[in-house]
């Protein structure tokens, strides 16, 4: 990924973040958001993902609905979003990045992963449009 594309993505991420409601920012303060170019081979193997450009985000942790005192001492929750997967979702039929679609996909990915943090499964998130 070129530095120009990475910078463009990060600029769009900043725009999206500035438009998210305050309560989403409060959640992100509790569940850090990490931005990576693409998932590691280890993550891909663990999730059974064959093409790294197919994964947009990942929540790692124990969902709030599953927590108990038995979960003390475990690593903190984290949300990762992957530039490559999100950019793939935002490319038009000519191979150009659609800025509006990129912002939409960034927003959807962040909210989708926050949904996992709150214990929602894929079906529930799909029903909500995430």
What does this structure look like?
This protein is 51% helix and 10% strand. With 130 residues, it is mainly alpha-helical. It has a three-stranded mixed beta sheet with strand order 1-3-2. Helix 1 packs across helix 5. The chain has helices at residues 3-19, 22-30, 41-47, 83-89, 99-117, 122-128; strands at residues 33-36, 57-60, 78-82. It contains six helices and three strands; from the N terminus they run H-H-E-H-E-E-H-H-H. It has one domain: Zincin-like.
Any idea how many domains?
1
Helix content: 40-55%
| Secondary-structure element pattern, one letter each | HHEHEEHHH
What would you report as the Rg, rounded to the nearest angstrom? 15 Å
- Shape descriptor: globular
Name of the top-level CATH class = Alpha Beta
By CATH, the architecture is named 2-Layer Sandwich
- Mean of pLDDT: 86
At the third CATH level, what is the topology name? Zincin-like
* Physical arrangement of strands within the biggest beta sheet: 1-3-2
Please identify the structural class as seen in this structure.
Answer: mainly alpha
% residues in beta strands: 5-15%
Poorly predicted sequence stretches spanning 5 or more consecutive residues: none
Helix segment count?
6
């Amino acid at each position: 990924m070129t530095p120009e594309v990475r910078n463009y993505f990060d600029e769009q991420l900043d725009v999206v973040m500035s438009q998210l409601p305050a309560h989403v920012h409060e959640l992100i303060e509790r569940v850090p958001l990490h931005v990576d170019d693409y998932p590691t081979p280890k993550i891909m193997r663990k999730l059974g993902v064959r093409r790294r450009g197919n994964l947009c985000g990942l929540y790692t942790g124990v969902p709030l609905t599953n927590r108990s005192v038995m979960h003390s001492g475990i690593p903190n929750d984290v949300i990762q979003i992957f530039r490559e997967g999100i950019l793939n979702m935002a490319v038009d039929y000519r191979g150009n990045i659609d800025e509006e679609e990129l912002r939409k996909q960034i927003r959807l990915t962040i909210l989708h992963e926050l949904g996992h943090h709150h214990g929602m499964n894929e079906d529930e998130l799909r029903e909500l449009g995430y």
